[in-house]
Structure formats: structure tokens, C-alpha cells
Amino acid sequence: MRNKIIILCLFLAHFGLIHAQYVIEDSEELETLKKLPLEKVYVHANTSLIFPGEYLYFSMNCINAMSNRLSTISRIGYIELIDKNHKSIVKQKVALVKGKGQGDFFIPVTLPSGNYKLIAYTHWMRNAGLSQFYQDDIVVINPYQIDQENLRNKKEESIELNIVQENSADMQLEDKSIELQIGKNIFSKREKVSLVPRNYKGSLGYGNYSISVRLKNNLDVKPAMHATFFGNKYLSSTKILPKNINDSIYLPEQRGELFYGRVLDKDDNPVLNETVIISIPGEDFQLKSAITDKSGSFYTYVNKPYTASTIIAQAIDNDAKKMVKLIDKPDIAYGTLEFNDFTLNSKMEKAIVERSVYNQIENAFYSVKPDSILSNAIIDPFDGGSPEIIKLDEFTRFPTIRETLVELVPNVWVKRLDTGDYTFWVREKLEKYEIEFESDPPLVLVDGVFVQNHSSILDFNARLVDRISILRDPLVLGDKKYLGMVVIETIEGDYLNRIVDHNMAINDLEMPTSLKNYFNQSYAAENVEKFKNIPDFRSQLYWNPTILIDQNSNEKKYEFYTSDISGEYEILLEGFTTYGKPITVKKTITIE
């Protein structure tokens, strides 16, 4: 499989259409592409009924459609909430690691009541159409808005409340591979529960799973799709690329998140062989380069985490007659989606009011029950290099960058070219001297923004600068050599807001969902005093999006505490074994 992906990457050198699509040029390419399996996605959502002020948690499983095992092809997944007007209300990018991803939606009070659709997919899956996408129904009840037209029963107000039976997957729920062991079935309020997923099938039960413990829904809402039901429903999903020669395809994001654009001249003609610098600015900036093809198109993958909200593309030669464009991925047409027909009736009023009150109380105490975001790996923008750092506050400040370089920064100077322009120069370390780089100026960035014309920043106000970092090692970006790097960081990190460059494409950037440690309430002895006067109206007692069951985890305990809400709670384990079998295991406990 790895060889197939590498072969596909070679094709991307002449990637050509503006919608992240590649045209299959001959039978050899078609044959190779068809060897790369398509994918399908299963989402374990913690609920199918959600109120404002609550979180919809999800665990994403990207699956190889050929082998039914977790896919190693795509590194980015997408999840959307679609309303009945077929509009995307929420869209998130999900980082996939060996086929697994996670995230959550917060439901705001501005979201109206209605029947919604939860959609999940990868870029590679778009080649098979909407039928390949994961689709499940979500009901939003917003009691804070007067207008409930979207959920009003159009026939009779006095209908009987019918509890919807769970989908046909229930007949398959009693999987004997894994048992959820908890010791007893009845618990008191604020009591500890120790859960052990016991694997009785050895290696046949090894796999990746997620666990939800939630108060059972007492309204007639169809439950979220189970993994076993998904396994049957999507058994006949498209397994290989359904395309032919001269067809265009959506490229898989197998090396990271895909970005693409075009370079055009003043007459809107494509520019061939133009080097484009793509940067994600900030303290942990990232730089990429790409070369345009005959259609003026370029692409790049970003495979490291980022925190910035902006991406920039610039033509390297600073020719004002050329225009660089970054192109967004095209929207998906959801016009053929069919929605659930859940409606409200008067018998639901008590349950809705009670849940709304509990939510308001829980949100009032959110500050003492926060989730924590897991830190990403530290991104080194110098890729292992050791820069010399000059912190300007440690010296007498000078008015401009030009004067600051002369007076404070060793091994960097400014040189006037024959054209009248100025350029920075860096003295290479003698022990690493490479003669082929001696005529190359350094790469210069301000707040992670690539500076093509060094003259443009010589008179920049140095009092706005925090530090200057100098890397004196030779480097190559794209097809161009640089003798070192000079990185200027402003105090506010706002250089991009201070410049106007018509040869620069600037697009907003949505970050993939952050990995979190979800809050797990504890009433252990050391916490009793802290929480004794804080109400606990959690309906979601426990959520863990990533559970690994292998030879080392057969006795592992997952502990959580019950809340102050009495009733029946469902413990639900969903996921897939390492050889692709879908697993759904349920257990019910009661809190008195």
C-alpha cells in the first residue's frame, strides 16, 4: 500500500484543475489509481438528540473500503451538520492518525430546532459521490426559541407518544467478543463505577473503540447509528475509483491537508513554472513551496499541526503583473439528502423543560468542570537548526531595521544591488562553508510572512520588533537556494496587518479539531469537599473517543462517577477490530 501511495504522489507533479482535481491522462495512470482503495467513514456520536448548551462528541473511524480495516490513506477527515435546507451549519476538519480522529460540536442557542443530518467523509471519498459519505440523523430541540415550526406536527397535536424501536443493528448487538463488566447494575448518586471491557476472543477482539455513558433518551428519537448497523449498510460501498481516462478526480490528502491555487498574468493567462511560496505565519510558522504547471496551478500539503488562522501564497519573483490565487475546496451539493421527520408533541414538555434546566445549571458551573486541550507536538520552524537570537529589549533600540542590523545584529548586513534594490546577506559558518551558496541571499521572514523585496522592510519601525533570529546554515526551498534565514518577530505578531501586497493571496484557515482530555468528574476523597456544594446534573457521565484493546489492556479499568440525575444510563462501546469487524456492545445501569 505504501508503494501505491508514493506512485500516486508522483502524478501530482502535473496536477491541473482548479478544484483540487487531477485529470487521468492514460490507462497506466488509471490502473495505478484504481489500486488505491476508496474509503468509508463511521462516526460514533454520543447522542442523536442534542440541546443548546450541550456538546455533540464524536469519534471518527476512516476505513479502507477494500479491507474494512482502518485506513492509512487520508490524514484529514471532514464532518458537517446539515440543515433541512441542505445548508452546512457546522463544518470541521478532523486530523486522522492511522484512520482515527475525534472532536466535538458545541450547540449554540442560535441554532433552531429541527431535523439535521450528520455527514462525514474524506476528500478521496468525494470521487464516489454522496452515497459513499457517512450519514446519520440528528435532532436539535431548542426550547429557548419561540419558533418550533421545524418540529411541529402538521397533522394532530394529540398524537400518542411512541418510543421508536432501535434500528435493526440491535439484533446484532450481543457480540460475544467483548463484555462490559461493571460488577453491579444499580448505583447511588455520585458513586464510582469501574468499567472493564473484557476481551474473550484474544487477538480476534483486538481493535480501536470508543465508549459513551449517557442517560437514556426518553423521547421518540432514533438512536445514533451503531457500528454493526454501519457495517451492513455500507457493506456495498464503492471500493475502487469509479473513474475513466480523461475524468477528473479529487486527490487523497494522504500527506496532510491539501492547499492549491493558481498564478495568472495580467491578461488572466496561466503562468508556467512559477515558484510559489506558501506560508502559515506565526511564531511556529511553516513554509512550503510549489511550482505551477501548464494551467498555472500549484498545490502543496501541510502535514504538521498549526495554530494560525491564515495561509498566504506569494510568487517568488515579486512580479506585480502576476496574480496569485488560493482556491477553496468546492462545496458539496446536499440537495438529495433525505431527513428524519421527528416532531414534538405536548407529552414531551416535562422532559424538555427538565433537561433544559439541568443544562443551564451545568453550564453555570462549567468553569469548575472544564475539558483540557492536549498540546500539539512543538513545531520547530527551523527544522533542527540552531538560530542566533537577538532580543531587542536587551539593547539600546534603534529606529529602523536597517540601523538595528548595523548596530546590533552580528553576521547580517545589507547590500545594495546593481538594480538599486537592497538585500540582506548572512555570513555562513566557516566550518560549514559551501561555495555554491555564497552568492545567495538569505530567506527573510517577518512574523512568518515571506519577504520577497528586502528593501521594503529596511525602514520598518524596529520599536515594534521583539526579536531577530538568524540561521546561518544553507537551505533550499523549492528550486531556490538561500544562504541562511533571517526571522523578524514583532511584539504583537501583526506584520501581516501592516502591509499591502497585491501579489499575495491571503485566505482564512480553519484549524483541525483539537485533541482533548474530556472532563471526568471525580468524587474521590480528595475531591469531596471541593464539589460537595456544586450540583451535578450531567447526563453524559463518561466519554472516551479512543480505547485500544490489545494484549496489554485486558484488565484495564475505566472509571467514572454517577451524577445527581436518577434514571437508566446506557454504556455503549463502538468500534472495529484490527481485522475490520464492527463491534457494538451495550449495557444498562440504573442510578437511584
Short description:
By secondary structure, this protein is mainly beta.
Describe this structure in words.
The chain is mainly β and 592 residues long. The chain has helices spanning 2-11, 27-34, 227-233, 349-364, 401-408, 525-531, and strands spanning 21-23, 39-45, 49-50, 55-64, 76-82, 88-95, 100-106, 114-121, 134-140, 178-181, 186-187, 192-199, 207-215, 248-250, 257-264, 275-280, 286-291, 297-302, 310-315, 323-327, 372-373, 388-391, 412-416, 422-426, 443-446, 449-450, 465-477, 480-490, 504-508, 516-517, 540-549, 558-561, 567-577, 582-591. Strands 3-9-8-5-6 form a 5-stranded mixed sheet, with no helix packed on it. The chain has a 5-stranded mixed sheet with strand order 11-34-33-13-31. A 5-stranded mixed sheet has the order 22-27-28-25-26, with no helix packed on it. β23 and β24 form a beta hairpin. The longest helix has 16 residues, at 349-364. It is globular, with a radius of gyration of 28 Å. Residues 1-20 and 156-172 have low confidence and may be disordered.
